[in-house]
From TrEMBL, chain A:
NCBIfam families on file: PRK11814.1 (NF008773), sufB (TIGR01980)
Regions annotated as coiled coil: none
Domain SUF system FeS cluster assembly SufBD core: 210-451
Family: Belongs to the iron-sulfur cluster assembly SufBD family.
InterPro entries from the UniProt entry: Fe-S_cluster_assembly_SufBD, SUF_FeS_clus_asmbl_SufB, SUF_FeS_clus_asmbl_SufBD_core, SUF_FeS_clus_asmbl_SufBD_sf, SufBD_N
Boundaries of every SUF system FeS cluster assembly SufBD N-terminal domain copy: 141-202
Gene name for this UniProt entry: sufB
Entry protein name: Fe-S cluster assembly protein SufB
Automatic annotation (TrEMBL), chain B:
InterPro entries: AAA+_ATPase, ABC_transporter-like_ATP-bd, FeS-cluster_ATPase_SufC, P-loop_NTPase
Phylogenetic lineage: Bacteria, Pseudomonadati, Bacteroidota, Cytophagia, Cytophagales
NCBIfam families the record matches: sufC (TIGR01978)
Keyword Isomerase: no
Gene3D superfamilies cross-referenced by the UniProt entry: P-loop containing nucleotide triphosphate hydrolases
Protein name, per record: Fe-S cluster assembly ATPase SufC
Family according to the record: Belongs to the ABC transporter superfamily. Ycf16 family.
Limits of the ABC transporter domain: 2-246
Keywords: ATP-binding, Nucleotide-binding
SMART domains: AAA
Domain of life (superkingdom): Bacteria
Amino acid sequence: MSKDNQVLEELTSKEYEHGWTTNIETESAPKGLNEDIIRFISSKKNEPSWLLEWRLNAYRQWTKMKEPRWPNVTYPPINYQDVIYYSAPKQKVTPKGLDDVDPELIKTFEKLGISLTEQKRLTGVAVDAVIDSVSVATTFKETLAELGIIFCSFGEAVQKHPDLIKKYMGSVVPVTDNYFAALNSAVFTDGSFCYIPKGVRCPMELSTYFRINAANTGQFERTLIVADEGSYVSYLEGCTAPMRDENQLHAAVVEIYAMKDAQVKYSTVQNWYPGDKDGKGGIYNFVTKRGLCAGDGSKISWTQVETGSAITWKYPSCILKGDNSVGEFYSVAVTNNHQQADTGTKMIHIGKNTKSRIVSKGISAGYSQNSYRGQVHIMKRAENARNFSQCDSLLMGDKCGAHTFPYIDVENNSARIEHEATTSKIGEDQIFYCLQRGIDEESAVALIVNGYAKEVLNQLPMEFAVEAQKLLALTLEGSVG
Amino acid sequence: MLSIKNLQAKIDDKQILNGINLEIKPGEVHAIMGPNGSGKSTLASVLAGREEYEVTGGEVDFLGKDLLEMAPEERAREGVFLAFQYPVEIPGVSTINFMKTAVNQIREHRGQQALDAVSFLQMMKEKMKLVEIDQSLLNRALNEGFSGGEKKRNEIFQMAMLEPKLAILDETDSGLDIDALRIVSNGVNKLRSKNNAIIVVTHYQRLLNYIVPDYVHVLYKGKIVKSGTKELALELEAKGYDWIKDEVSVA
Ligand SMILES: Nc1ncnc2c1ncn2[C@@H]1O[C@H](COP(=O)(O)OP(=O)(O)OP(=O)(O)O)[C@@H](O)[C@H]1O
Ligand SMILES: [Mg+2]
């Protein structure tokens, strides 16, 4: 596949679709990080003093910590003093409802296919839209409130539900958990908060959409989901950013707290700007996501489709503390051009009869490096724990790399652990077979890749699955050859 | 319909086709036989446009167009179909989904509208009957874990779906049990018409009892060294290839 393919590649290697910026007036903190900046952020958000103390403590801890170097990724040192830690769209009035939201912002999200006007939404998805450092609108609040469900921006939750925040923030991801979590704890700006009361099944998908807009700005959001006894919620997260030559920093924290018999399903379609074909620009994505199955019989399920970012460092994990609790991790990570991803999960079995399932599908193309890193830890108390892990890698071309780093620690002999791993290549045979049936090369790759990732894509809510399929195809366009 | 003139091709510097000449008219069935490694699958692949093979000489005209100039998917859309000797597995992609993509891309090429789910299903049901294939097989990932016979039957199902003008069946009979051979051959015969043509590559005369060819050719060392009618196949069955090889070396 020589000459034709080069032509094909030129024709089809699409630019990142969401790479535009919105001209909105912003209000920013000066570059750099110190205690004054943290005080500035905290006062901007009108925070109670305990929270400011919490941030300052996190900051002091962070200054003593070292950036992790163990991930299988390489990038020049990040100058944390060269980042803007707070940037907010200037709104003339503080929006009380959707009617008050700046039309420019509504337009921005509409361009991304996300309508913030409730009447226009056909599907039952409630959205919290976050641009740069603040949440600009949350839809369907009233409908949800009737069921006692709280779904709002993190900032609002701090004001209106301080007890819940105080109790659960940091309960799953402690401030000093890791370098980026500590940084986030010091400077986080907004994000989403969600509480599902006892016995309530949330009737619609809850969704947060993150958009970085301003230049040189880091995005540090926190999401906290608390699922009370016997409740259920399905949560979606999407993200995009404009194309910029400089790398931008994104360090988020997501905490899920599941009580007895609660079920939380968390799905992500990550599409941050990946940088250009030569590896210039793109988002550095350092994210800490963790769920605590605190109560017996609870279940937390992570599904992620990772297509964007220049660097991805991300291990959505489950702590299976309650007896009979279940943790799941379904992941598709695609890397193309010069992207680097080091992603996977941790399943910590503490309770009896706990079960975990890991299905990871890596796809590497171009000059990219794609690593799966996973830990399964069966603690002493965890009688009859079970884990099944399946880690597959698919290679396209011969200049990319796929790596698997599974770690298994077993402290209880009754554990049953199964681990399967495969590495395959998209065969020219497979492509030719498709071509011979009249299917063009791009569609052939899309078909093969989606087939490969099917088990994971099947976990996504319907409308998200279609989106994710398109995204996979788009990410890999022009990568065969 | 298909006119091959002095076709030569090589792979990795190994010359495999050494000047093939073949004329095929609409409605005809041509059988190609020949010893292992003589170049039968290579000829099929070159006609289908596999890029690993480099055409080093000759011409191929298909319905008035230069076939060798066309991309493989274009050839397929123009009506060339290859039933593979070794059908390829595509995990996670059902035959149904695969065929839906193929049928609609071909329809688009012909300026027709994409089939909706209902019409597609209806068409599929019809074609399933033709080769007596079970829908459960079509729901499974394409060729993954299929038995040898199931793979071959699936190829002919696809041929039925795509309604090609020129179908090349590369050892479709190998791996089929006696009943399946009859069923698949019947399916192929039902797809025969005065407007399309079929090339059947086989080692066994048995298949030609079911799919009766108008012509039989023997390929040897990348050349067609003998052509005849269906009686030639019987003769080969009885005598083997040695006498032909001798004829060639004498010549
Ligand atoms: N990639 C390759 N490199 C070198 N030689 C090749 C390659 N592919 C095929 N060949 C050779 O080309 C010759 C013709 O192969 P081909 O598959 O066309 O034979 P065939 O007539 O279909 O045989 P069979 O009856 O066994 O199916 C064989 O000698 C084979 O080894
Ligand atoms: Mg062959």
